[in-house]
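Hello,

Our lab assistant flagged a job as stuck in the queue for most of the afternoon. It eventually completed. Since we weren't sure the result was trustworthy after the delay, we are filing this so someone can double-check. Below is the sequence as submitted and the structure that was eventually returned. Let us know if re-running is recommended.
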Amino acid sequence: MIIKRHLLCIKQREKLELGQLLLYEPYKNILQNFIELAIKIEAKDFDPVAKVYDGLLSVPVEIKEYYEALLGITSYYQHSQGGKGKYIEKKIASAFESCSLDIKLSELSLWIEHPVLHKKKGIFTLNGLTIDEKRIIRRTPWDWMGNRDESTDVGTILKQEKTMVLAEVKNRVDSGGSAARREILTSQKFGIIIDYILRNEKLYRKEGKEFSLPELLKFFGFEILELYIGILFDKGDRPATIESDKRNGFYSSSKEGFLFLLNKIKVHKEIKILNEDLENLKIEFLLPNSYLKIKIEALYGDNVTLKLFRKQSPVSDLLLLKYDDIWLSQLIAIDERTFLLKHNKNFLTVFKDLLKGDRGLRKKYDNLIISECQKAKLSQIVDYLLSKYSNLFDNKLVPRDKRKDEYLGDIIQVLCASEA
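-- returned structure --
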């Protein structure tokens, strides 16, 4: 029985929402590389030392090709970044209009004056900008005078509240390690921001006038700066809580950082502490003369999006985009490369060869891609292949646990998704 898979890369790119586009490009690249590995033996080889170290010279003969294929396919995928690093920040930013990502201290003025442009640059990089948009960035009238820049994962400008929110995001309570947690508040990230604020150091210059960070925020009408460490999930993929961070995460390291920061702030007697809750990792204080209120806090689960966007938005919604592209294509590539190594051919190579000499098949395949692999058209092309070319699709090229029509249907869908 043929199964219609839920593939993102078969969809028409121009019709995708921003959240889908974040996965589309890296998925497409991965699929295309899997196809390459599945149809070309020379696409992956192992040097003599690797063959010994990885056990390729001693693996039992009956599973030799499978093991080599497994090693080759999975090693490619594990070494492929594929957009994973920044995915969650981009997903958060794409979900809310007022949010941007990769907030550098040196680019605060760009973010404030051109929030849409800044967000676009963060999601698509400079390569995704128009010539005019790049020119705006190059010709910024603001000079950066600081000697140490800092970049925060995501941020929101809340104009009605006269508030700027910056959040450093961790996917799980055990992400990053104890040192990384502590350094956010000491030597890195918010530690740098707070040092600049406490010293009231001049960081920005425009037309000869110099501004410290509090002065820049005041210039643009901000009265509150909120700095958050946001922990999204516990180890079981549920929204994180402070309790789960204490049990399985790096809460103690966060607490060390907060205590260090609190002591640094208290050295300045003129600063007014408005709220101090070390157990729940909250600090709120008012700077003298600048009237700038600063809040620092650790957030967990749904409170991350609540503080960022001032509305209820479950963090579990960040996981709603569930597609079959990666798991299906990776398993197909392992099986197909196994058959390629063993028999020097597989269903993929047979199908691609048939496409070259059968105009009617090419039309069916094209119509299938246009339909985004509609199940009726997929069944039609599988039936056509198995009736007209049954001798070419040999049973020895089918995994033992799969029906031939189901396996061929999956292969065609993966190929469609890589070539659409």
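-- support follow-up --
The delay was a queue issue, not a problem with the job. The result is valid. The chain has a mean pLDDT of 93. The longest strand covers residues 163-172.
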